[in-house]
Specification:
Distance between the termini: 92 Å
Helix content: 25-40%
CATH architecture of the largest domain: 3-Layer(aba) Sandwich
Strand order of the largest sheet: 3-2-4-5-1-6-7-8-9
Keywords: ATP-binding, DNA damage, DNA repair, DNA-binding, Hydrolase, Metal-binding, Nucleotide-binding, Stress response, Zinc, Zinc-finger
Number of domains: 2
Strand content: 15-25%
Structural class: alpha/beta
Family: Belongs to the RecA family. RadA subfamily.
Region (Lon-protease-like): 329-442
CATH topology of the largest domain: Rossmann fold
Protein name: DNA repair protein RadA
Pfam families: AAA_25, ChlI
Number of helices: 11
Radius of gyration: 29 Å
Length: 442
């Protein structure tokens, strides 16, 4: 070209070739030179505690400046209430927080904040759904923590689609991630979930952010769990426990009290266990009820447990322990809305069934930990020592664990190692077989 298309001058264009690099890409001078990793100050990326111990536990000691956190959960589970508690603790520490709501008006958020006691002069509130306006609020307020509730309601000018669409969510999240990295503002995004419980929006949304948290809860229970799914600054399998009340959401440092029913003495059909939820050991209680019936197909029901594992334990108990339930309705349930899906609950399920059938209670202060195989053997499970230590902390005096456990057990609690179901029945005093059983003890 002899004439410049921009200024219209002739002969002002000089011929030149860009530097050749593999793949045809063009190299660009970096804005800042690369430095040795030993010269980087690690304290600059230190976590700042939010003031809520259970939330900091899942985050990994607190919020890292410049990080982006995605908190997803079902409608009404308490996401906004938890974040209001977070900004209240953040503001009480002398830091500034900006809460942007796109689903409610500012007045509605203020009413909820008054009900939960989350009103503070360091909390700034804005009801906006335009991304550019939100960035303008950040420049004016200059907060150290930004809450966007929710990312599905924010729209970016210039991006295709409507609010909540794949393109819009990706554009909004990319802009907020860039804001966090350049300004050092910690950003917490509230996300919706699909019917399957997955984070709504493109899968790349979870890759863009630094931390992904799932807020879980049952409508019929006040217990709420914040579960880590992805965490670049800490463990991704931590769990934080909260309790939803009329005056807000409160952290529960010891959730085992919710899952264990306190009573005066031992009751037949009730057995305590220690389940692992991520890296957290929680003591729970399993109850079983066997009721005689004349029905051709007795009912089997499980609540809080995997029904397939309960059916397997019924077959194993009948084959290797003489617990016949063909003429009984069987009901097995956890206490307090606890959900247990790991195989470590097998031994507790078996002992609860055997205790209910024989009408012999398991002694008070006993916990059962172990997986049961189809041949009646008791297999070891991970983190047995941690489970026993949690049981000891709560005052339990006897733990029944698999014989193959090679971990060092804590002192101060009696530990009985069992290799099969017969030994487990003897250790708990429930080893009574049906008179018409033809099978020899395992």
């Amino acid at each position: 070209m002899g004439r410049c298309p921009d200024c219209g001058e002739w002969g002002s264009i000089e011929e030149g070739a860009p530097p050749a690099v593999p793949g045809g890409a063009v190299s660009v001078a970096p804005r800042s030179p690369a430095v040795r990793i030993t010269e980087i100050d690690a304290d600059a990326a230190g976590a700042t505690p939010t003031g809520i111990g259970e939330f900091d536990r899942v985050l990994g000691r607190g919020v890292v400046p410049g990080s982006v956190i995605l908190l997803a959960g079902e409608p009404g589970v308490g996401k906004s209430t938890l974040l209001l508690e977070t900004v209240k603790s953040w503001a009480q520490a002398g830091r500034t927080a900006l809460y942007v709501t796109g689903e409610e008006s500012a007045g509605q958020v203020r009413l909820r904040a008054e009900r939960t006691g989350a009103v503070h002069e360091n909390i700034f509130l804005a009801a906006e759904t335009d991304l550019a306006t939100i960035l303008g609020h950040v420049e004016q307020v200059r907060p150290t923590l930004l809450i966007v509730d929710s990312v599905q309601t924010v729209a970016a000018t210039g991006a295709d689609g409507v609010s909540g669409g794949v393109t819009q969510i990706r554009a909004v999240t990319t802009a907020l991630v860039s804001l966090a990295k350049t300004s050092g503002v910690a950003v917490i995004l509230v996300g919706h979930v699909t019917k399957d419980g997955n984070v709504a929006g493109p899968r790349s949304l979870e890759h863009l952010v630094d931390v992904v948290l799932s807020f879980e809860g049952d409508r019929h229970s006040s217990l709420r769990l914040v579960r880590g799914i992805k965490n670049r600054f800490g463990a991704s399998d931590e769990v934080g426990c909260f309790e939803q009340r009329s005056d807000g959401i409160h952290e529960v440092a010891d959730p085992s009290g919710i899952f264990v029913h306190s009573r005066g003495g031992a009751v037949a059909g009730s057995v305590n266990l220690v389940a692992m939820d991520g890296r957290r050991a929680m003591v729970g209680e399993i109850q079983a009820l066997l009721h005689p019936t004349q029905a051709n197909m007795p009912r089997r029901a499980a609540s809080g447990l995997d029904s397939a594992r309960m059916s397997m334990m019924l077959a194993v108990a009948a084959k290797h322990a003489g617990v016949k339930t063909a003429e009984h309705e069987v009901y097995v349930s956890t206490v307090g809305g606890m959900k247990v899906t790991e195989p470590a609950a097998d031994l507790a399920i078996f002992l609860a069934l055997k205790s209910s059938k024989s009408n012999r209670p398991v002694p008070t202060g006993t916990v059962a930990i172990g997986e049961v195989g189809l041949t009646g053997e008791v297999r070891r499970v991970p983190s047995t020592a941690r489970r026993v230590a949690e049981a000891k902390r709560l005052g339990f005096t006897h733990a029944v664990v698999p014989a193959g456990t090679d971990e060092e057990m804590p002192h101060g609690i009696r530990v009985t190692k069992v290799a099969n179901l017969a030994e487990a029945g003897e250790a708990t005093g429930t080893d009574v077989r049906d008179s018409d059983d033809e099978q020899a003890p395992f």
